[in-house]
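Suppose you are handed a protein chain with no further information: no name, no annotation, nothing but its sequence. What can you learn? This example shows the usual starting point.
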Amino acid sequence: MTHADREQRKSVRLPFPSEIVFSDGSRLFSEHIVNISTGGILTETSRSCEPGTEVVLTLPFVPPRKVKGVVKWCTKKGLVYQAGIQFVDLTPEQESSIRECMYGLFWR
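A reasonable first move is to predict its three-dimensional structure. Written in structure tokens, the prediction is:
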């Protein structure tokens, strides 16, 4: 990711080492979240994800929240792939849950 790409980010990313389950409609992924922001997540996955793929994510909140996302990019890093997934079509309740999680991480 270039410096210009980082400048385009609209929100702060915070480390969020946790498990996540998401599906692209044909495959189910159970992977690791690296970090989270109000706009999306960075995940490490054992399989490549095609940019532009729409996914449904189950965020590991209490209670768990399902949200829609789209794979923005995917790159190989060592033995795993890293994928940036942007949240899309969030309801106000989903946005609020993500913000609450972010505030909880920030104030730990």
